[in-house]
Design a protein that fits this description.
This protein is mainly alpha-helical. It contains 13 helices and 7 strands. The strands form 3 sheets. It has a 3-stranded antiparallel sheet. A two-stranded antiparallel sheet has the order 4-5.
């Protein structure tokens, strides 16, 4: 699970062995500090032993290199690893959310970070079965901030601002990679919201939205090499749409058309804050290329 979560968050499912060990160590610390800690069985093996175990299962390959060995998963191995990654995605959701916010914005008022997490939490809670009511969320965010700071992944020196590590530090790409664990989930939500904004209220049926989102995600993955093997699966977009309906952001009218109000703009803005500028730009471009509802 640890190797899957860390290795699949890299663009080509490959990582320097030493850096992968470091990233696994971060995840182990975060899992030890999570509110879930008392209800899960944690793996406390040293990171090198964790990787060796996964190698024996033939789920990754090791490629010796003069500058440091590389660990890599091929396409078939990555598909299998996705199953293991998904088993612990909910455990790392809040650390990954906070990592996304801080790494993409470099510095952020603590209150703004909380607002962004609250804004997207309803959708993530339904998709990942997160247990905390909204009223308990601030305490969980505080615990997550503390765990990230203990690992040197965020800086919160003055108490009001959360800051990413210096860009030339070793911790900076590690924070970004932690956020990448949740990126495919956030991208699916943002693509769905961008499509709804492109079409407008009362223009699409639920089935049409799910199909268009699925097809455009396939195109996005081919054009921009999005790194998740299952990114464009239709069932995952169906889940996003269902969660938007269950959360009251979308309503189905008597004609079967999806209707929404200004709240969808807020949901899209909160999701946008969590994604890098190039990712947002790519998704906006692909959403504008969607066919008209009448076609």
């Amino acid at each position: 699970n640890l190797v899957a979560a860390t290795l699949l968050s890299t663009p080509k499912h490959a990582a320097d062995l030493r850096l992968l060990q470091k990233q696994i160590g971060h995840c182990q610390h975060l899992l030890a500090q999570t509110p879930w800690a008392g209800t899960i069985v944690r793996c406390d093996l040293p990171p090198d032993e964790v990787i060796a175990y996964v190698r024996r299962l033939d789920l990754v390959q090791c490629h010796p290199h003069p500058l440091g060995d590389m660990i890599r998963a091929d396409e078939q191995q990555a598909a299998l690893l996705a199953y293991f990654r998904n088993n612990i995605l909910h455990l790392l959701a809040l650390p990954a959310l906070l990592a996304c916010l801080v790494s993409h914005n470099r510095q952020l008022p603590r209150q703004r970070a909380r607002e962004a997490i609250r804004g997207i939490y309803g959708l993530l809670r339904a998709e990942l079965f997160l247990p905390w009511p909204t009223g308990e969320l601030d305490a969980v965010i505080d615990l997550t901030e503390s765990a990230l700071a203990q690992r040197g992944l965020i800086q919160d020196g003055d108490g009001d601002m959360l800051r990413a590590p210096p860009p030339n530090s070793e911790a900076s790409p590690q924070l970004q990679q932690l956020g990448e664990i949740l990126r495919p989930t956030l991208e699916r939500q943002f693509l769905t919201l961008a499509l709804l904004q492109h079409y407008g209220s009362g223009q699409l049926t639920r089935a049409r939205l799910e199909e268009d989102a699925h097809l455009l995600a396939q195109r996005l993955a081919m054009l921009y090499e999005f790194n998740s093997a299952e990114f464009s699966e239709k069932l995952l977009f169906a889940n996003v749409v269902r969660n938007l309906i269950d959360g009251g952001i979308l309503q189905v009218d008597d004609d079967g058309l999806l209707r929404f109000d200004a709240r969808i703009t807020l949901a899209a803005a909160q999701t946008e804050l969590l994604l890098a500028a190039d990712v947002r730009h790519s998704i906006h471009l692909i959403a504008r290329a969607a066919p008209s509802p009448a076609s």
